[in-house]
Design a protein that fits this description.
This protein has 133 residues and is mainly alpha-helical. It contains five helices and no strands.
Length: 133
């Protein structure tokens, strides 16, 4: 049984939000949760205008354009590779554990916070301050 306390912020783009919600709901099936979490990363980057090429190229472009930090790109590549191991049934890669699924979901939530939630809160704060002036 997994804690139901994981929530997905409404600020995330619909597709990214849906993939992340499904990943959280399927943590009892870690391989599926990992693949869904990687799909959420992909959807977030596409929502930021990085739609060309592979997920590898989108992550690299996000880092090169400073949309994300180099460390975030490294973690995103880890998530991508974890999902690839499952999608391609890599016989040499271990199956993910529930802890692996949680780690991947934690990253996707952090990425969503960085790319969408915080900018939305900042924009709202600016609007509120402007209205109060």
């Amino acid at each position: 049984m997994f804690p139901s306390g994981l929530e997905v912020d409404e600020t995330l783009p619909d597709r990214a939000k849906e993939y992340l919600e499904q990943a959280i709901s399927s943590m009892n099936a870690p391989a599926g949760a990992v693949m869904l979490a990687a799909s959420s990363v992909d959807a977030m980057l596409k929502a930021k205008g990085l739609a060309e090429g592979s997920l590898y190229k989108r992550i690299k472009s996000a880092a090169d354009s400073h949309l994300i930090t180099q460390e975030m790109a490294e973690w995103a590549h880890d998530v991508r590779l974890d999902a690839n191991d499952q999608r391609h049934s890599d016989m040499t890669a271990p199956l993910p554990s529930p802890e692996d699924a949680r780690r991947v979901i934690d990253f996707v939530q952090a990425l969503g916070l960085f790319l969408f939630v915080l900018p939305s809160r900042v924009q709202k704060g600016i609007q509120d301050a402007t209205q109060d002036s």
